Amino acid sequence: MATWQLQTAKARLSELLRAVREHGPQVISVRGKEEYLVSLNSGVGLKRGPRTWDELIAPIAGLGDDILLPPRNEVREAETPFDDRKDR
């Protein structure tokens, strides 16, 4: 696995990518510290994110429908240890 300095990798991107294809993963260093690993996408396609609201919500649609919530017209004030109001 070869190591490339960041400025060299930027200037010679095509060569870096060719080296990845021909020789395997390549490391890019920043200020002498190995920071990045460049490797081939080995058949595991990049997962496309949802493009619409419906695609985003579809996997979780209906979850939580069985949760019982109190009616909205009930107003309950919980006492807290920091509540020192006398006019309640």
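That was protein one. Protein two is written in the same sequence-then-structure order:
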Amino acid sequence: MIRTLPAGLIDNRIEFFNDPVNLEVSYCLTEGKVTRVRDASARVRTIIQRDMDKHPGKVLALYNLGYSSLEQQMEKYVSCCFGAFDGEADATDGVLHHTEYWPCPKRGSCPAAGVLCSPLVLAYGTLSTRETEVFQRVAMLDKEIADELKISEETVKIHLRRIRQKSGLDNKKELIKLAYQKNLI
């Protein structure tokens, strides 16, 4: 099996990711160096700033959350929009790509949910909040998922069918593999 190196390890692409313990801290990997976003090079900061300029609603949400300085806003913007260390470039050729889903523990309770963070987008559709909750538990038995989420087993089966449709996958084993690849389990 050939594995690809994470973006930024040996090139100038950029991979952003969050500190797994302190969600207020974000890092970038580029040109073989890991730096905290607030200490990033002028090139990286310019890329982030250009993207923030395109999304004033996100910047307003950051301000409303209490992030008033540009330094704080940049770090939290990256955290919310690009927090997963998935090895795929978040920026190439000076441009940030689409935001990515990552399983933030504040999902569901953050007042900026749905404004700053991205839903989970699969090959043929976007998962609802409940479908995402089921997908995060896909390695469990259907009854265990139902009990944990306080829904019926039939509802779990419906959500799993919709997730299969939106992913283009045929069975639970393939869904488990995809959930693992997306760092959901």
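The domain at 121-181 is CATH 1.10.10.10 (Arc Repressor Mutant, subunit A). Keep this in mind for the problem set.
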